[in-house]
Write a structure and sequence with these properties.
Layout lengths: L1 E11 L5 H10 L14 E10 L2 E10 L6 H8 L4 E7 L3 H17 L4 E7 L1 H6 L8 H11 L2 E4 L8 H16 L3 H11 L12
Parallel strand pairs: 1-3, 1-4, 4-5, 5-6
Antiparallel strand pairs: 2-3
């Protein structure tokens, strides 16, 4: 069994649902009825997921959403292979902050896979008038930047596990060579072996 480490960072505006998303995934908890506590700097959690013969260990950084911690957040998304950029479906201004974080990632971590995550879906399901961010606007933007899009509810758990599973699958497909690919590389690189590829001048 092969162990692979995957660094994920959560970014987004304050009160955007990042901490609740992480707690639902890691511990299957939702503390929505408790007084809100700001994340200071960043919080960290880890979880293992099994994909075929690979055990993926996810290290997940939940960064503070307050603008005064933005400079500090760069420390935590450095080297991240995936970023979940969260926005609150009931807060139109939170989606504007998404664009800021996407620009930051494109500038400093261009190989980082980006996932847009609309949070608090349960609220807009209960009352459609609560939705302040048009779904088609978000899908168009996701297509524009080449990102996956999920709408989640940390209260009900809807699409939370699916989001992180998709990240793990995409990571393996992009960064972890299969056994077959490794064997082909060995054949191509071994002395005395003829390459199956050729070119003509």
């Amino acid at each position: 069994m092969k162990r692979v480490d995957l660094k994920i960072v959560l970014l987004g505006k304050e009160y955007g649902g990042k901490t609740s998303l992480l707690e639902r995934y890691l511990y299957d908890h939702f503390h929505g009825d408790l007084p809100y506590q700001n994340t200071i700097g960043a919080a960290f959690g880890a979880k293992k997921i099994q994909l075929d013969d690979k055990q993926i260990t996810m290290g997940i950084w939940d960064t503070a959403g307050s603008e005064r911690y933005e400079a500090m957040s760069k420390i935590y998304y450095r080297g991240a292979k995936a970023a979940i950029v969260c926005y609150d479906l009931t807060d139109s201004s939170s989606f504007e902050r998404v664009k800021f974080w996407v620009d930051e990632l494109k500038k400093f971590e261009e190989d980082c896979m980006i996932y847009l995550c609309g949070t608090k879906k349960d609220l807009v399901q209960e009352d459609r008038q609560c939705r302040k961010i048009d779904y088609h606007t978000t899908t168009d933007y996701a297509d524009e930047i080449g990102a996956n899009l999920f709408e989640t509810s940390s209260k009900t758990g809807e699409c939370v596990r699916e989001l992180f599973t998709q990240i793990a699958m995409d990571f393996v497909n992009k960064y972890v060579p299969s056994s077959k690919e490794k064997n082909e590389d060995l054949i191509l690189e071994s002395p005395g072996k003829k390459s199956t590829f050729c070119c003509s001048s």
